[in-house]
C-alpha cells in the first residue's frame, strides 16, 4: 500500500481528504491511500502548466519525439509490473491489462515519428514575389480528464500527442485508478519531460469541474479532453462552449452488433462474447444489443448462451473472461440496470443474476466470490426498441438481444438509441456490409469483428451521445492538440492586395471548333 498525492511542477501537493483505492477483486486489499486535492489544486496545476508550456514548445519537435520514444521504452521495460498493478487495482483480467499496456507502447511508437512529421505546407500565391505557408502550433495547456476502465491506455491517447505537439498537460485520472495513474505519470516524467509540463491532479468530480471552470475563466486552459459518461461530457461541452473552446469528448456507447442471415454464427458468437462481457462489459465500446435476423435468432441465442455459461468468470489474475466490476459505484449502477429487466424479457447466460455469492453462485466460478464485486453475466432476450435496456448504456455484464427482418430495420434499430461510438456487422455478403456502413451513425464500424478493439494508428471516437465528432489516435488527433496558423510573406517591395491586384489572363472564350 502506498500514499499518493497530486504532483504540480514536480512537487507533491497534500490533499484535504483521503480516498482509499481498494481492489474490486478483493475489497480488503488496500492498493493506495490517495490525498485528494480541490479546485485550487487544479488551478495551481494549470498555472504550472502554463508557466512551463512555452519553453517546452520551443524544444524542436523531433526532440520531443525522442522523449516520447523514451516513454515507450520505459513502459515496455515496466510492462509486467504496470499490467499487474492495473489488474490489482481495477480487476481487469491480466491478459487484457497486458494488452492495455501494449497500447501505450504502440501509441508511443506511432507518435515518436510524428515529431519529424508535424508538417505544414508551402502554398502557391496568386501574386508574384509572394509565398504562403501553413504551420501547426500547439494549443497551449490541455486539461485531460480520464475514466478508470482503461486507466493507462486511454490516458496515453491524450498525453502522448498533446506532449508531442508542444503542449503542457494537467491530467485528472479517476480516483479508483489512482495507483495505476501515478505509475504512468512516473514513467512519463522519467522519460525526459521538464517539471510542470505534465501535472497530476487527484480530485473528486465536483472539485475537478470547479477547478476547470476557474482555469478556463482565467485563460489557463486552451483544450479539454474528457473520457467518461455522456451526462458529464455534456456539462463539460457546455462549459467549454462559454469560452469558445471545442473539447475532445469520448463518451459512452450503446453499441449494436447486427447478425445477418448469412453470418458465420460461430464467429459472431465469439465476437459477442468478447465485446459483451470482456472487461465485465465496462468498455465504452462494449456490445449493447445484438440485433439478429429472425431466421438465425434461435440458433445464435442458443450458441451465445452456451458460450456464456461455459465462460470462466472470477479472479482476474487467472485465465477468465472477466473479473469484478470496477468499483462499488459501478456495482450500484449495474444493480439499477438489472431493475430494468421486464416481464417480457427472457434472462439467460448464468446460474443466477446479480452479485455472485455463496448464496447466489456461478457455476465453475474461479476464486472466492465473497471477496470482490463479482456479477453474473446476463443475456436479456426479447428486448424491444422502447425498453430502457435497449436505449441506455448499461456498462456492465449485460447484453440485450432482439430481432429484425430487413437490413434497413436493423440499421434503424442500431441508430435509435442516439449513441454513435462503435458497431459491428457479421455477414458474408459485401453488399450488406457496405449498406450497413452507409446507414449507421457510429464513428467506428467493424465487419466480422467485435465492437471492441482499437489500434494506435486508426481514428477513435464517436458521434451523437458518444461524442462531439472529435477523434483520438492516428494523425487525426493532431487536430485536437494543434491549431493551424497561416503566414503570407510578400517580398515584392510593394503592397499587393489579394483579389484586387491579381494578374488577369486574356483569353478568347468565344472561340468554337468549326
Automatic annotation (TrEMBL):
Keywords for this protein: NAD, Oxidoreductase
Keyword Protein biosynthesis: no
Keyword Oxidoreductase attached: yes
Residue stretches making up the Aldehyde dehydrogenase domain: 19-486
Lineage: superkingdom: Bacteria
Recorded GO MF terms: aldehyde dehydrogenase (NAD+) activity
SUPFAM superfamilies from the UniProt entry: ALDH-like
Pfam families: Aldedh
Protein name, per record: aldehyde dehydrogenase (NAD(+))
Originating species: Allokutzneria albata
Amino acid at each position: 500500500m502506498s500514499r499518493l498525492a497530486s504532483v504540480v511542477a514536480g512537487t507533491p501537493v497534500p490533499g484535504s481528504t483521503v480516498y482509499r483505492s481498494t481492489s474490486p477483486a478483493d475489497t480488503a486489499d488496500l492498493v493506495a491511500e490517495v490525498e485528494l486535492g480541490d479546485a485550487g489544486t487544479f488551478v495551481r496545476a494549470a498555472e504550472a502548466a502554463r508557466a512551463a508550456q512555452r519553453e517546452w514548445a520551443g524544444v524542436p519537435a523531433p526532440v520531443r519525439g525522442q522523449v516520447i520514444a523514451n516513454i515507450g521504452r520505459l513502459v515496455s521495460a515496466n510492462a509486467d509490473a504496470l499490467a499487474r498493478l492495473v489488474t490489482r487495482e481495477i480487476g481487469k483480467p491480466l491478459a487484457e491489462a497486458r494488452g492495455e499496456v501494449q497500447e501505450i507502447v504502440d501509441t508511443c511508437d506511432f507518435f515518436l515519428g510524428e515529431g519529424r512529421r508535424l508538417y505544414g505546407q508551402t502554398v502557391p500565391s496568386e501574386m508574384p514575389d509572394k509565398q504562403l505557408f501553413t504551420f501547426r502550433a500547439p494549443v497551449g495547456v490541455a486539461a485531460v480528464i480520464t475514466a478508470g476502465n482503461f486507466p493507462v491506455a486511454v490516458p496515453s491517447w491524450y498525453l502522448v500527442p498533446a506532449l508531442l505537439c508542444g503542449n503542457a498537460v494537467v491530467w485528472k485520472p479517476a480516483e479508483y485508478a489512482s495507483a495505476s495513474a501515478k505509475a504512468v505519470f512516473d514513467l512519463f516524467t522519467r522519460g525526459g519531460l521538464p517539471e510542470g509540463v505534465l501535472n497530476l491532479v487527484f480530485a473528486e468530480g465536483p472539485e475537478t469541474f470547479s477547478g476547470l471552470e476557474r482555469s478556463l475563466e482565467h485563460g489557463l486552459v486552451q483544450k479539454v479532453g474528457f473520457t467518461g459518461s455522456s451526462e458529464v461530457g455534456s456539462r463539460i461541452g457546455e462549459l467549454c462552449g462559454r469560452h469558445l473552446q471545442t473539447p475532445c469528448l469520448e463518451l459512452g456507447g450503446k453499441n449494436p452488433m447486427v447478425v445477418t442471415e448469412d453470418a458465420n454464427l460461430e464467429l459472431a458468437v465469439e465476437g459477442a462474447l468478447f465485446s459483451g462481457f470482456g472487461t465485465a462489459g465496462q468498455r465504452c465500446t462494449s456490445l449493447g444489443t445484438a440485433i439478429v435476423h429472425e431466421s438465425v435468432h434461435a440458433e445464435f441465442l442458443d450458441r451465445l448462451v452456451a458460450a456464456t455459461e461455459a465462460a470462466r468468470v472470477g479472479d482476474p489474475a487467472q485465465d477468465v473472461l472477466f473479473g469484478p466490476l470496477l468499483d462499488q459505484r459501478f456495482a450500484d449502477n449495474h444493480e439499477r440496470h438489472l431493475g430494468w429487466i421486464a416481464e417480457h424479457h427472457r434472462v439467460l447466460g448464468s446460474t443466477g443474476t446479480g452479485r455472485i455469492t455463496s448464496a447466489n453462485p456461478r457455476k465453475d466460478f474461479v476464486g472466492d466470490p465473497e471477496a470482490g464485486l463479482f456479477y453474473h453475466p446476463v443475456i436479456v432476450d426479447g428486448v424491444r426498441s422502447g425498453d430502457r435496456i435497449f436505449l441506455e448504456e448499461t456498462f456492465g455484464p449485460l447484453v440485450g438481444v432482439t430481432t429484425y427482418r430487413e437490413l434497413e430495420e436493423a440499421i434503424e434499430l442500431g441508430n435509435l438509441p442516439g449513441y454513435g461510438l462503435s458497431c459491428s456487422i457479421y455477414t458474408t455478403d459485401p453488399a450488406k456490409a457496405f449498406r450497413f456502413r452507409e446507414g449507421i451513425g457510429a464513428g467506428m464500424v467493424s465487419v466480422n469483428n467485435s465492437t471492441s478493439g482499437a489500434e494506435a494508428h486508426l481514428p477513435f471516437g464517436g458521434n451523437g451521445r458518444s461524442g462531439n465528432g472529435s477523434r483520438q489516435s492516428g494523425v487525426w488527433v493532431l487536430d485536437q492538440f494543434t491549431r493551424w496558423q497561416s503566414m503570407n510573406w510578400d517580398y515584392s517591395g510593394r503592397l499587393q492586395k489579394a483579389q484586387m491586384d491579381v494578374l488577369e489572363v486574356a483569353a478568347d472564350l468565344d472561340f468554337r471548333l468549326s
